[in-house]
Write a structure and sequence with these properties.
Layout lengths: L1 H23 E6 L3 H8 L5 E5 L6 E3 L9 H13 L2 H13 L3 E3 L4 H10 L4 E5 L12 H11 L14 E2 L11 E3 L2 E3 L5 H12 L5 E6 L2 H13 L3 E7 L12 H14 L5 H7 L6
Parallel strand pairs: 1-10, 2-5, 2-9, 5-8, 9-10
Antiparallel strand pairs: 3-4, 6-7, 7-8
Helix pairs in contact: 3-9, 7-8
Length: 281
Amino acid sequence: MIRTATLTIFHLFLSFFVAISTTLADIIEISDLAPLAELLKESDKDTLVIFDVDHVLIMPTDEHTLNRHPYRKQLWQEIESRLSKEDMKTLYGVATSKAKWRLIDPGIADIFGHLRAHKIPSVALTSIYTGKFGNIERLEDWRIKHLHDLGFDFCNLTPVKGEMLLHELEEQDGTPMLKSGVILTAQVDKAKTLACVLSRSNYYPKTIIFIDDILSNLESLERLSSELKIKFHGLHYTATSGIPMPVINEKIEKIRFQILEKEHEWLDYQELAARVPALTE
């Protein structure tokens, strides 16, 4: 009888533990913003909402994206096989400095309106490099400007004000930092960088909502949240997979990449037509 009772109690405890674990953390795949909007209805000042940037908030327009079309990706990889990492940074800086950007989903404006109206703490978390990058003097300022231009200002939403340089995490791709409510990891693991920001500021929310297009980033933050006993909602955002692939002209693209490699210029189609009139004939 005692053994039976003990086993029953153990099973009850195990069930309770599993239930608690399930409620503390979950990751779901979403293709639109409706699940995020629903989560925000239950959020308050004790929630931290974290947004990835590329392919979640913004992305380059079709003419300027470098990796969404297989042929462009192939041309880029061919150049990469010939050049050093530093030379590639230079070319990437040239190309990205001319890029035009678009929203992934215009409905994000309503999400940010809700965050501002209800004063829900929010930050951006991006793995982008920092510091000088090719002809871009400070990549962090370049990134923040694009966000501001498209309506994403985290300065009044971030719970951690000011600028924070994380020199202890510094590697070859720049210094991880917090600036204007944007955490830039310089290719350091997102969870590791976020943990440093939270520790330095002694700020620990009760709940984290994180939206990212890369599953491993979500899993990394899920583990961190578990360690910190923070409830976690991960949203694996796949909206870009439903956006039609850019329509390109392979002949034009090949010349475009040749000019990029040899002359360090990234031309749009109109500029290419002016440079090489025969392309439009």
